[in-house]
Design a protein that fits this description.
Length: 254
């Protein structure tokens, strides 16, 4: 009797896309050193991949590994990469020798952002996976806000630092955010794709539209986003078995 291969044979198509999301997050983190705009585009591309893996899991079936793999990939794409964009932007503008307080803030706020993103993703995987609502701002949404602000030209150190400082604690609040409905997620994905693909004024316009949509959902979603009463209810107790789906719905899920 031979054991089946330990890794690749256990992965599905959706899992491969999720692994690609992790690779995009790593590329984004590396791109920060020479082109923060490219890094922002890669973060948004990771958000598109994050939505696609959920679509593929529902269409072709997910695996028990999927939700855990999804959260690990999101740490890279929506935790570390946007945090490095913020750190690089702030520390470049405020050197340690001339602005020590702002320099330290540019290091500590991104570090806190990553730490809280990791906590949020772990809690999501254990408690909220498969639910129609989830506690706290999704890491995908927080990263989208930061990346879209950079591509929209709102990339001053004060803006990106402020967005990270506000988004970080919101990721671990008890406020419940509903999943986007498929048609709304599709609109968001199209706007994301246009912000990634287009340069110049057109690209900035789509990035600004994406920022507007993301901030609108962040502020108004918990109270005004339309959903069924049953979807707004607390999720039932998590069973002992593994989750059946891979990752979140095609929206800012985790």
């Amino acid at each position: 009797m031979t054991d089946r291969p330990r890794f690749l044979s256990r992965l599905g198509l959706a899992d491969a896309v999720t692994a690609g999301n992790a690779a995009l997050g790593t590329l984004a983190a590396a791109a920060v050193a020479f082109d923060p705009t490219l890094a922002a585009r890669l973060v948004l591309l990771g958000a598109v991949a994050d939505g696609l893996d959920g679509v593929l899991a529902r269409r072709y079936g997910g695996t028990a590994i999927g939700p855990h793999l999804d959260s690990l990939a999101d740490v890279a794409s929506f935790g570390v990469a946007p945090a490095l964009i913020v750190a690089a932007t702030v520390t470049a503008a405020y050197p340690l020798d001339s602005s020590p307080v702002l320099f330290v803030a540019g290091m500590l706020v991104p570090a806190a952002y990553v730490a809280l993103a990791v906590i949020r993703l772990a809690v999501y995987t254990v408690e909220d996976e498969g639910a129609k609502t989830t506690h706290g701002v999704q890491t995908t949404l927080a990263a989208t806000v930061i990346a879209a602000s950079v591509l929209a030209g709102l990339d001053s150190p004060a803006v990106v630092l402020g967005l990270a400082a506000v988004s970080a604690p919101l990721m671990v609040t008890p406020v419940r955010y509903p999943d986007l409905h498929p048609q709304d997620a599709l609109v968001m994905g199209v706007v994301q794709a246009c912000a990634i693909l287009f340069a110049g004024m057109a690209g900035e316009s789509f990035a600004f539209a994406l920022l507007f949509l993301a901030l609108g959902y962040l502020v108004l979603g918990p109270r005004f986003y339309w959903r069924d009463v049953s979807e707004a209810a607390e999720p039932e107790e998590v069973s002992d078995g593994p989750p059946e789906s891979d990752g979140p719905d095609p929206d800012p899920g985790a």
